Amino acid sequence: MKIAVTRRLFQSEIDRLRERFEVAEWDSDLPPDPDQLRELLSDAVGALTLLTDRIDDDVLAAHPSLRVISNLAVGYDNIDVPAATSRGVAVCTTPDVLTETTAEFALALIFDAARQVSAGDRSARAGEWETWYPMRFLGRGVAGTTLGIVGFGRIGRNLAEMASALGMRVVVSDPAGDSAAYENLPLAELLQTSDVVSIHTPLTPSTRQLLDAERIGMMKDDAVLINTARGPVIDTTALVAALEAGKLRAVGLDVTDPEPLPQTHPLYAFERVTITPHIASATVATRTEMARLAVDNIIAVLEGTEPPHCLNPEVLERD
Ligand code: GLV
């Protein structure tokens, strides 16, 4: 049985696959292009994929041997799950192990925006540090400010706990979320009242461009916007226009649309925007755990035991 692995990963985890299966590895830090992906997947029964691999119905149709797609991510907007289900392919993910790590990174971006860590670093490197400036890089502390969390799943909840401990007032907006200790507001009200807005929704048809021009317009002029979820949840063109108009005090983006963000993109021109290359879950421990889970998912599906995280277990029951 062949397993395709679409990127260079931790060797110890690949070895666990090799003990049981034939493994075809894409031996690069860059993703295969769609043709290379098809080639890699040919005759595979399982695939360990990344969020950069588009697994749509055409790809699934071209590879009827596939029985499991194991995505190294909590998000799965790169995979057409209903198509996989109707073709009998299990789709698995790696949640939980990255919850705290991702929430910590959202918090890092919140602090960065509040206290201009990256902007100060860029300024020092650019040779602009001539003396001690009493009136430059004047930030705003986070304690006592209101954090609006859009999407109250595992990561949003973890951020809420950490932010509360820092003295932030936390409000959330999630029609489906059990917000327990936090006020659950309609999105418009959250946007109008929050000093910091942090996005934690998955990317779905209903959250695509959720923060459009109108909703960005509802935010306080000096609000901070943070996104560690998926880039297309924010309308990038509308965000650039808002920044050009002087709206928003700072923005922290670990995800962008498009992604990667081309070097010539207008977002890079704003001093008050910090951009990181989709690294919110990037700790050694978390990425190791994600790889372990992704491998466990494949082994379990193919050996007929219960995978740790399967999005469409009905496929396994059918088997
Ligand atoms: C990363 O973005 C993930 O979904 O795990």
C-alpha geometry: globular
User: What would you report as the Rg, rounded to the nearest angstrom?
Assistant: 21 Å
Bound molecule kinds, no repeats: glyoxylic acid
**Strands across the major sheet, in which order?**
8-7-6-9-10-11-12
The DSSP helix count reads 12
Strand content: 15-25%
CATH topology of the largest domain: Rossmann fold
Per CATH, the class of the largest domain reads: Alpha Beta
Spans of at least 5 consecutive residues with low confidence: none
Largest sheet: 7 strands, parallel
Outline of this structure?
The protein has 319 residues and is of the alpha/beta class. The chain has 12 helices and 12 strands. It has 2 domains: 2-97 and 283-318, Rossmann fold; 99-275, NAD(P)-binding Rossmann-like Domain (Rossmann fold), CATH 3.40.50.
Task: Summarize the structure in words.
The structure is a single chain. By secondary structure, the protein is of the alpha/beta class. The protein has 2 domains: 2-97 and 283-318, Rossmann fold, CATH 3.40.50; 99-275, NAD(P)-binding Rossmann-like Domain (Rossmann fold, 3-Layer(aba) Sandwich). It is 35% helix and 15% strand. The chain contains 12 helices and 12 strands. The strands form 2 sheets. Strands 8-7-6-9-10-11-12 form a 7-stranded parallel β-sheet, with helices on both faces. The protein has a 5-stranded parallel β-sheet with strand order 2-1-3-4-5. Strand 4 (68-71), helix 4 and strand 5 form a beta-alpha-beta unit. Helix 1 runs parallel beside helix 11 (284-303) and helix 5 (99-115) crosses helix 7. The longest helix is centred in the C-terminal third of the chain and has 20 residues, at 284-303. The mean pLDDT is 97. The structure holds glyoxylic acid. Residues 51, 73-75, 98, 281 line the site of glyoxylic acid.
